């Protein structure tokens, strides 16, 4: 994979994590962690498991998790709606 491809994929994983972390709360904010997992499983099924696939998966999960946590941190406070009386 070229350096440009790596930068683009890492950026997209970060943005997906950030968008979900910022816009939705738990438990839906964890959905972007499935994206790199599904892609790594597909790559392992196609080309066979390899160390480079595992390293790329770990990096992708870390970047996605960082995006989720940063999105949650920067999101406005969510308050539960007041119950009608």
In short, what is this structure?
This protein has helices at residues 3-23, 34-47, 51-74. By secondary structure, the protein is mainly α.
What's the SSE blueprint?
Elements: H1 3-23, H2 34-47, H3 51-74
Helix pairs in contact: 1-3, 2-3
Structure description:
The chain is mainly alpha-helical and 85 residues long. The chain has a domain at 26-75. Helices cover 69% and strands 0% of the residues. The protein is built from three helices and no strands. The chain has helices spanning 3-23, 34-47, 51-74. Helix 1 runs parallel beside helix 3 (51-74) and helix 2 (34-47) packs antiparallel against helix 3 (51-74). The chain is elongated, with a radius of gyration of 16 Å. It starts with a helix and ends in an 11-residue tail after the last helix.
Notable traits:
3 helices; 85 residues; mainly alpha; 0% strand; single chain
User: Which range best describes the helical content: under 10%, 10-25%, 25-40%, 40-55%, 55-70% or over 70%?
Assistant: 55-70%
What's the gyration radius in Å? 16 Å
Uncertain stretches: none
Compressed to H and E, one letter per element, the order equals: HHH
* Count of distinct strands: 0
Number of helices: 3
C-alpha geometry: elongated
Q: Largest beta sheet, briefly?
A: none
User: What oligomeric state do these chains adopt?
Assistant: single chain
Average of pLDDT: 90
Helix/strand/pairing category: mainly alpha
State the separation between the terminal residues, measured CA to CA.
59 Å
The share of residues in extended strands comes to under 5%
